[in-house]
Amino acid sequence: MDILNNLIGGFSVLTWFTLALAVLGCFIGTIVGALPGLGPSNGVAIMIPITFTMGLDAVAALVLLTSIYYGAMYGGRISSILLNIPGDEPAMMTCLDGHPMARNGRPGDALVISGVASFVGATLSTIGLMFLAPILSNIAYQFGPAEYFALYLLAFCTLGGVASKNQAKAAFASVLGIGIAMIGLDPNSGMARLTGGNLHLYDGVDFLVAIVGLFAVSEVFFFIEKHGAQGALNMVLGRVTVPWREIWSTRWTMMRSSVIGFIAGVLPGAGASLGSFLTYVTEKSIAGEKGGFGTGVAKGIAAPEVGNNAAAGGALVPMLTLGVPGSGTTAVLLAVLVTLNITPGPTLFTDRPDVVWGLIASLLIANFVLLAMNVPMVKVFVKVLQVPPAILMPGVTMVSFVGIYALTGSYFDLLLVTAFGVLGYVLRKLDIPTVPVILGILLGGKMEKQLRDAMVLSDGDWTYLVSSPIAIGLLVAAFLGFIAPMFLRRIIRKPEVPDHAKPLD
After folding, report:
1. What residues form DSSP beta bridges with 185?
2. Residue 167 in contact with residue 481, Cβ under 8 Å?
3. Where are the alpha helices (DSSP H) in 84-215?
4. How far, in Å, CA of 161 to CA of 479, rounded?
5. Residue 259, burial from CB neighbour count under 10 angstroms (0-12, 13-18, 19+)
6. Closest Cα to residue 477, out of 158, 163, 143, 166?
7. What angle do CA 197, 200, 202 make, to 5 degrees?
């Protein structure tokens, strides 16, 4: 009953204005997700400065940005199915059966099946968030400096461990982020650290500037290089109908995939990519060779779409309850909460229940908006794929720079955005993940504070860091989370894309 009452309270804080923001966020997010390469992280990062310049309060800002997040997860399937180019990494698995179905003359059916699957996965994961988040927040009350230090270390090890194929590169990215977080005045002594004598850096590096640069601006460079010569969409969508029989045949696939995807999202660092992969592999193994996976079957589309959208909702659980992002996009959302002077963690549910339950209520509404929007308006979103990059990407750049300047009013921050954009581009060319860098900038200062508090409480005794079962368990999980991907990649191989599912010439 408490959860139901809290949810009713969440709906009560929503206004017509916030509902309009949810619809707008769903629309923008779907467009961002449909564009190859952008994805939810970049979509949210681009809109952050605009959100603050609009003067939105905490609830309205989170409603808009999380609606973009969910919308981008929906939209990623469009280019995957029609072009065999994933809108983002979690949509890769949708290519395996979505594009073959489109090539078989049923692009509309593939888009509708994936839209319904996205709705089921996102809705069930939001319900899971309602029940699991309060429980986890109660457990987090037992955390002290040692436990939080171990928790932050777990976030670095797991999120960095699965973000790259090379653990050394992931570790380098995390250390780089922590190093950037150290720039500025030491919180204890007041001494300047790593500023090079530049007064602009005495307050440290604004993580919103770093996020927009590393995600949005670097994506512009990368997109132009990779897709600059990409032609317009040459597939005719035709009439869009709802294949009820095929959707009904995937009902148990959707249920199983929702559970798997949600669990993958709750685990820090696993995220939507692992959710879509695990669900596809699971359903393929259940169906066997007679299942026809890879030839354009409905279950092959539904499973990864349910998995990645369920994981998107699950990733919000550790962010809200522990202040630890479960994915790259939730790391961006965590920065928004910090900027709004809202402290994610166990006290968030008691100190700001309007924010938490207003967010959950808006997510439930956004899912229905996205379902209603993605079926009848799918032809509108497909048109976005015909926008030449020469027009699109300068627009993204303009929004990023204008938003940052309107937010900070500092020319130096524009230089920093450019510098982080170049850094992000170089890191991606070297196959070094950028998400651990952002995580380091976000959590580096907090991790340092918890370590210092632990040393003060223990009078410098380092064994205090392993003095509780929770801390030991988190440290062991951090170690296993970092080394496990090195062995799992040898055992688990992603399914190869068959010849008939390769992009059209």
Report:
1. 192
2. no
3. 95-103, 107-139, 145-163, 167-181, 207-211
4. 10
5. middle
6. 158
7. 65
Residues recorded for the chain:
505
> Which two three-digit tokens encode residue 224?
């132009």
Report d(CA 442, CA 97) in Å as an integer.
38
**Contact criterion met (CB below 8 Å) for 178 and 442:** no
Torsions phi, psi for 184 (to 5 deg): 120, -160
Taking the C-alpha atoms of residue 47 and residue 61, their distance in angstroms, rounded to an integer, is: 10
Confidence of residue 234 (pLDDT cuts 50, 70, 90): low
213, 307, 295, 221: which is closest to 257 by C-alpha? Answer: 307
Phi-psi region of 244 (alpha: psi -120 to 50; beta: other; left: phi over 0): alpha
Q: Are 208 and 50 in contact (CB under 8 A)?
A: no
Q: What is the rounded average pLDDT for all residues in the chain? A: 77
Beta strands in 255-324 (DSSP E): none
Closest CA to 116 of 248, 313, 21: 248
Sign of torsion over alpha carbons 156, 160, 161, 162: positive
Cα 487 to Cα 138, 279, 433, 481: the distances in Å are 34, 20, 19, 11
Calculate mean pLDDT across residues 458-468: 82
Percent of residues, the chain, with pLDDT higher than 90: 0
User: What is the C-alpha to C-alpha distance for residues 345 and 252, in angstroms, rounded to an integer?
Assistant: 34
330, amino acid identity: T
Report helix, strand or coil for 185.
strand
Q: Which residues pair with 192 in a beta bridge?
A: 185
